[in-house]
C-alpha cells in the first residue's frame, strides 16, 4: 500500500550553541507496508523513528527519496493533492495529553471530524452521534461515560483510546503508533497494545508500530516485519521472530543484549554484545556507522560502507560485512 525509497532527511539545528549544525535524521531509508500488515521500527532514542513515522503520515517533509501510495508517486502531485492519500494514514502520538484539546469534551473532539466525514460520504447529521458512540465502543470505552467528559477527567489509558477513536473517524487504512504506550501507566499498556492488535484483525488496518522496546514490538507485530534502525539507517530487516530469535547484525545484537534478564526465571544469552564505546555523533561517519562501537569491526568496516542486503544464507536482510548468529537473547530456565 505504501512504499518509500531512499528517504533522506537532514535537520538544521537551531539555538545558539548548535546553530547551523546538521543532523542526519534519515540517511536513505527504504520501506514498504502492505495493506493489513504490521511493521515495527525499532531502535534507540534519536535514531530517526519518529521522523520516519511523521514522513509516512505526511506530517514532515523530506530532502530526497520517493513515497508511493497505492501506486501513485507523491512527488508527481502538488502538496494539496497529496492530502487525500496521507489522510488514510493516521498518526497516534505518544502523548495522549497533548494530543487532545483540553477545552473540548470528547463529544466535541469527535464531532468535528465526523461532521466532515458525514459531508464527504453524504450521510445525514444523525449519523455523527451514532458513529461517535460506535467508535468509542470499538476502542473499549463506554460512550455514555466518556462523551460528556473533558480529557483531564479521563485516565491516560482512556485518553489514548479516545485518540485512537479520533484517528478512526476518517476510516484510515493505516495507523502509525509512535511509542503509543510509553507515557501511559504500565498497567494500562497491554490494553492499548491489544486494542491496536484487535483493530488490525477486525478492521484490516495496517499498523506501523514505532518503539524502542523489543517486547512491545514482538507483541504487536509478531507476524509482521521488523526494521532495526541505527542512526538514520536500516541495519537489519526481516520477520519479527527471525530478528528477535536470530539477529545477525552486531547493533541488533547489542540492542537485544540490553534487555534485562529476569533473574531466577531466565538464563542470559551466552554471546551478549556490548558496544565498545558510547555513541558520539560528532565523530566521523566513514564506513559502517556502527564501526567505532562494534566489538567485531575490522579495517574494512571503517573504509567501506556495508549495504543492506540479504547475504550469508540468512533469512533477513542486514548491513554487516561479518554477519553471524549470536546467542544474545535470554532463554527461560528449565523447570528443575
Ligand atoms: N524538528 C527537529 N529539529 C531539529 N532536529 C530534529 C528535529 N526532529 C528530530 N531531530 C533530530 O533528528 C534525530 C532523529 O530524531 P527522532 O526522529 O525524533 O528519533 P527517535 O524518534 O528515534 O527518537 C535526532 O538527532 C533529533 O535530535
Ligand atoms: S560491518 Fe563491521 S563494524 Fe559494522 S556491524 Fe558489521 S562487523 Fe561491526
Ligand atoms: Mg521518537
TrEMBL record:
<keyword id="KW-0067">ATP-binding</keyword>
<dbReference type="InterPro" id="IPR003439">
    <property type="entry name" value="ABC_transporter-like_ATP-bd"/>
</dbReference>
<dbReference type="InterPro" id="IPR027417">
    <property type="entry name" value="P-loop_NTPase"/>
</dbReference>
<comment type="similarity">
    <text>Belongs to the ABC transporter superfamily.</text>
</comment>
<dbReference type="InterPro" id="IPR050319">
    <property type="entry name" value="ABC_transp_ATP-bind"/>
</dbReference>
<dbReference type="Pfam" id="PF08352">
    <property type="entry name" value="oligo_HPY"/>
</dbReference>
<dbReference type="GO" id="GO:0016887">
    <property type="term" value="F:ATP hydrolysis activity"/>
</dbReference>
<dbReference type="GO" id="GO:0005524">
    <property type="term" value="F:ATP binding"/>
</dbReference>
<dbReference type="GO" id="GO:0055085">
    <property type="term" value="P:transmembrane transport"/>
</dbReference>
<dbReference type="InterPro" id="IPR013563">
    <property type="entry name" value="Oligopep_ABC_C"/>
</dbReference>
<keyword id="KW-0547">Nucleotide-binding</keyword>
<dbReference type="InterPro" id="IPR003593">
    <property type="entry name" value="AAA+_ATPase"/>
</dbReference>
<dbReference type="InterPro" id="IPR017871">
    <property type="entry name" value="ABC_transporter-like_CS"/>
</dbReference>
<dbReference type="GO" id="GO:0015833">
    <property type="term" value="P:peptide transport"/>
</dbReference>
<dbReference type="Pfam" id="PF00005">
    <property type="entry name" value="ABC_tran"/>
</dbReference>
<protein>
    <submittedName>
        <fullName>Peptide/nickel transport system ATP-binding protein</fullName>
    </submittedName>
</protein>
<keyword id="KW-0813">Transport</keyword>
<feature type="domain" description="ABC transporter">
    <location>
        <begin position="2"/>
        <end position="256"/>
    </location>
</feature>
Amino acid at each position: 500500500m505504501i512504499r518509500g525509497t531512499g528517504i533522506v532527511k537532514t535537520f538544521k539545528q537551531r539555538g545558539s550553541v548548535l546553530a547551523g549544525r546538521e543532523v542526519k535524521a534519515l540517511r536513505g531509508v527504504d520501506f514498504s507496508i502492505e495493506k493489513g500488515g504490521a511493521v515495527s521500527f525499532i531502535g534507540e532514542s534519536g535514531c530517526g523513528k519518529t521522523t520516519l513515522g511523521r514522513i509516512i503520515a505526511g506530517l514532515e517533509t523530506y530532502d530526497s527519496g520517493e513515497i508511493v501510495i497505492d501506486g501513485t508517486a507523491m512527488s508527481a502531485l502538488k502538496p494539496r493533492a497529496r492530502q487525500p492519500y496521507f489522510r488514510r494514514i493516521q498518526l497516534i502520538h505518544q502523548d495522549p495529553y497533548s494530543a487532545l484539546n483540553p477545552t473540548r469534551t470528547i463529544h466535541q473532539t469527535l464531532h468535528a471530524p465526523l461532521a466532515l466525514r458525514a459531508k464527504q460520504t453524504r450521510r445525514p447529521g444523525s449519523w455523527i452521534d451514532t458513529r461517535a458512540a460506535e467508535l468509542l465502543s470499538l476502542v473499549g470505552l463506554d460512550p455514555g461515560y466518556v462523551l460528556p467528559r473533558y480529557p483531564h477527567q479521563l485516565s491516560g489509558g482512556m485518553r489514548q483510546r479516545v485518540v485512537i477513536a479520533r484517528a478512526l473517524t476518517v476510516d484510515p487504512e493505516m495507523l502509525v503508533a509512535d511509542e503509543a504506550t510509553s507515557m501511559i501507566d504500565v498497567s494500562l499498556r497491554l490494553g492499548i497494545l491489544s486494542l491496536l492488535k484487535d483493530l488490525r484483525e477486525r478492521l484490516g488496518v495496517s499498523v506501523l508500530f514505532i518503539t524502542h522496546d523489543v517486547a512491545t514490538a514482538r507483541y504487536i507485530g509478531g507476524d509482521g516485519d521488523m526494521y532495526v534502525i541505527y542512526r538514520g539507517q536500516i541495519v537489519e530487516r526481516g520477520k519479527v521472530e527471525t530478528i528477535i530469535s536470530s539477529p545477525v547484525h552486531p547493533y541488533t545484537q547489542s540492542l537485544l543484549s540490553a534487555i534485562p534478564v529476569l533473574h531466577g526465571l531466565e538464563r542470559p544469552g551466552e554471546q551478549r554484545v556490548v558496544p565498545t564505546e558510547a555513541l558520539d555523533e560528532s565523530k566521523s561517519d566513514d564506513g559502517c556507522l556502527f564501526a567505532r562501537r562494534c566489538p567485531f569491526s575490522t579495517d574494512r568496516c571503517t573504509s567501506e560502507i556495508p549495504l543492506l542486503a540479504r547475504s550469508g544464507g540468512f533469512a533477513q536482510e542486514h548491513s554487516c560485512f561479518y554477519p553471524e548468529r549470536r546467542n544474545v537473547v535470554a532463554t527461560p530456565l528449565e523447570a528443575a
